[in-house]
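Thread: quick sanity check before group meeting

JM: Hey all, I'm pulling together slides for Thursday and realized we never actually wrote out the predicted structure for the chain we discussed last week. Dropping the sequence here so it's in one place. If anyone has concerns about the input, flag it before I start.
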Amino acid sequence: MKRYIIAAAIAIASISASAQKVTMLIYGKDTVEIKTGTDITQAIMSLNEKRFKKELARQQYIQDSIDEVIANAPSLYYRSQFFDEKGRLKSAREIERNPDSLFLTAKAPAYESLMSYTDINYQVFDSINKLRIESSIEESDMTFDPEAEFDFVDESIFGLSKEKSLPLLVKEIYKNCDCQCYRYIAENILGVEKIKKALLDPKTKSFNIAVLQDKKGIYVYVTCIKKSRFFSIEKPYAIFIED
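JM (edit): ok, ran it. Output follows.
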């Protein structure tokens, strides 16, 4: 603080040795306007606050850029093999974020690309939930569980990977669908009578959905969750919409 006061004093002296009113103060690389009756220390503190907010905004911009890169980075879903302590060959499901070419060559010399529509999953959930409320279904309002949803999406991707017998390089699409295509997905789900019946069943307390797409079409996975006092029952369904 003493250093700031000395710098301020030098700046004041450079303006006018006999001046009683200071209009401008040179402080570092910035010029501060000093109004009549304003304390110099307060002016400097105000400038420091502006500098802090500017730096905070810069750091937030950097973080947002990093988050965008991470959000757009694909993930490889694959199976690895290993020997357990008894020498038996085992396999494990693995997810590698943003794998480089060397990793892909080693772990997935052949793979398929896939898109996973994270926000559309929620939009479809919300759309069907509103339909339940409009239909006056008893205990109609369902609660969206993000953790269960992410787990279900992973399970669906691994299931599709097994079906294709190939690792999948998956890009998650986080932006909300402004083109109303989630309605198209919801209509296809509700167009299957057994799924519609399960979703509109008062005993169904929640459901999870995974919307995935490859070059052939759209894969929609749904699981309806019915909960009783002691346990819950999950009923899985799958729909393929040819592109």
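AS: nice. The helical segments are 2-15, 40-72, 101-107, 118-134, 146-164, 181-190, 193-199. Residues 40-72 form the longest helix (33 residues).
JM: adding both to the slides.
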